[in-house]
Amino acid sequence: MSAAFAEIIEYFNYKGPVGCGFPSIVKNGVAKSASNIDKSWIDTDIQQVFGQSCGCPVFATNDADAAGVAEMQHGMGVGENGLVLLITIGTGLGSALFYKGQLIPNTELGHVLWKHGKSAEAWCSSGARSKLKISRSEWADRFNEYLNHLELLFSPDLFILGGGESKFFEQYKHQLQTNARVVPAKLLNNAGIIGAAAYAYKAQNG
Fold this sequence. Notes:
By secondary structure, the protein is an alpha/beta fold. The protein has eight helices and nine strands.
């Protein structure tokens, strides 16, 4: 993975700070979980491994948190001062929680215990939809159950949906019934990239 990371940096002939949105709980640049990646990443210093491979300073944060930061600064979360919950829908379910614009990091709400003792992401992520070979309509009913459960727990003012499924929002929005507003991420699947860059800039410049 670090070799591929370095190849991307080399392709752009880039020498500055690099932001990395990583699919894990991330504390001080160290991976603390590994749900959808190899378990050997646990307790690995992401910033050190990738930094050594590419020769640039690397700043790592949770990938969903990165997407959330981008949406709060440049997307659908701009000007929102209540409780905002971004959910990234992809191989798993990522989450980013904000209150009055402040990030509460590493929420990992895709791992909420769900039906039959499995996590929510095993029930209604995009990866689950593909694995179970169900229609997007059937998936949307499942996902709506999940949103209602999160609403019961957190009472958000706004849900922002990101990740790969966000680009299909118009196909299933009528099936999402919550008290909170539900909108697709303005930056769609690019939110994580933009947020990682913003995180690196802030970490480098204080």
